[in-house]
Amino acid sequence: MTTYISTRGQAPDTTFAEALLNGIAPDGGLYVPKAWPRLSAAETAALAGQTYGDITRRTLAAFVGESLSNGVIGDSVRRLEAAFAHPAVTPLVELEPGLFLLELFHGPTAAFKDLAMQLMAPLLEAALAERGEDLLLLTATSGDTGAAAVRAFAGARRVSLAVLHPLDRVSPVQRRQMTTVDAPNVLNLAVRGDFDDCQRLVKLLLADPDLKASRQVSSVNSINWGRLAGQIPYYLAALSQLPAPPQFVVPTGNFGDAFAGWAAGRMGPKVGRFTAAVNANDALVRLLSEGRYVRRPTKPTASVSMDVQAPSNLERLVFECTGRDAERTRTVFEDFTREGAVEIEPKLVATLRAEISAVSIDDARTAEEIRRAWQEYGRVLCPHTAVALAAARGLDRDEGPIVALATAHASKFPEFVADALGFEPEPCPQVLAIGDRAERFETVRPEPEAALAAVRELLAR
Ligand SMILES: *Cc1c(COP(=O)(O)O)cnc(C)c1O
Hints:
This protein is of the alpha/beta class. 45% of the residues lie in helices and 15% in strands. Residues 111, 113, 144, 222, 251-258, 305-306, 384, 407-408 line the site of pyridoxal-5'-phosphate.
């Protein structure tokens, strides 16, 4: 039996399926497995000969347990493989001896969010069908999460999806990926405001008593354990191809992707240091260097999907680094929510630093790395990937091969890349496929009444 517990210790133990449906635990904490599933040494060695699908089936079997009926995992993995354009799903590319890119952008929306979202949609549909329930999913997006969710859930029978993006503040490619999908169960709301307004509206809607009374309401951002479970397989796939434990460098916003990598290490395989590469939004760097976790206003950068000031998944790492002390974890994050700042005691900071490093790369260095990767390898990087590769330059290759995660295709962010290189990136097939189809979205004021009215209409369709 695979059981899930809350990082804040005041919610009942639950199953994978319930954690998936709930998103956040009822005590405000995040779900983690009660015990980390372990791969034996033989199983770890056997990963090397397996396909991405095999590795994903094995990983999901460990995390889902018996909470979904037989066959559901196989169906979801087949769907994932069919949705990806590359036979390896997440190819590992050597740039020069000891330095690799793990390409996570071969899915339908050309960003790594597809990897978990394509798995999550059929898993959620199965959980809902078994319960005879319907679900409303709400998500605020600065671009990639919304696009991946729209593609994964369009046409789902038991899920209605409302995606809130800030009007005129996502890239035109990202917007069109969301708004050109014509499905009756999907609603795109362009909010006259910024990303924080979108997040605030989602929080208010998630707590709306009438909505909650009408059906299960949840969210698809990376607080949801289902997202992280779907991101562990590519770490296992990458390390199985390397002769020594790799040092992963993860372009980081909400710390979901990085935590999934850390979790892969907990399953048994040897992994080197984890580096969270962030942009100018550097709360993590300051936490590890100064021992203070402080919320500052979000700075807009070229790596928009990483413009996050309070990485939500840090709570999972703090829980682990306190020796799974739920009381202590709850205090840290309740204080942080209330005060916007919290002191972390030196012993805990030292434990966090033993697990991860954090490096901040500003937009000037990001542009410089885009030029360097073009000159040295003939490769055009997206700004998020460039943040990771720039951070990877500072690591010591004697400590193991370095794997920087390539989280999106450059042609999703043509303006910044063109400014750095002097030419526009070649559009990938996924971007070309958007074509000139009609866009569908509703523009709303940043007020709950307007968003609520639109969501009620969606549910009545
Ligand atoms: C979401 C995103 C990230 C950051 O991932 P987190 O899990 O939030 O840390 C990095 N790069 C791209 C392209 C993304 O869309």
